[in-house]
Amino acid sequence: MGNASSTLTQYDIEEVQEHCNYLFSQQEIVALYERFCQLDRNAKGFISADEFLSIPEFSLNPLSQRLLKMVDGLNFKDFVAFLSAFSAKASLQHKIERETQLPIIASKSVIFKVYDIDGKGQVTFKDLLEVLRDLTGSFMSEEQREHVLVWVLEEAGYTRNSSILLDDFVKVLSSPGLKMEVEVPVD
Description:
Blueprint: H1 10-19, H2 26-39, E1 46-47, H3 49-52, H4 56-59, H5 64-71, E2 74-75, H6 76-84, H7 92-97, H8 110-115, H9 125-136, H10 142-155, H11 166-173
Antiparallel strand pairs: 1-2
Domain EF-hand: 27-62, 111-138
Organism: Ananas comosus (Pineapple)
GO molecular function: calcium ion binding
């Protein structure tokens, strides 16, 4: 599984479904496998950082360099588990925590890890500011970014001096209307 020259058996499909908590249908897993094989150009059984960057939507994402640290070298099963955190069927808790056996992600939140820049298990004002800087580029001044973050933190009951732990992060992201989803096109 994960090698471009191999095919998925029914057993493989069911194993991957179980690994991703049944958040993808068997048809979606087959479609993801076909895409995985296209990305795995040298049929190594895993996708390298360069291969991930060949996905236009991924390479254009301002957070792609942070995400690359988490996805470089994923085999097919872990690739699907990673994507399951963005499934429309996933609960918010699953999306944020996504406790998996992924060696790269460990049992940390995929999303939390993007914001926890120094990897210390907490998100600080400085971390949030750096991510917002990546997302907004030259469209916002540093002063505007700081103003927005102070307002958002205060709305959530925090200050610029607060450190946000994973549980706090879950509360902040639990706001209505927040969407963290990916659709799997099935031909």
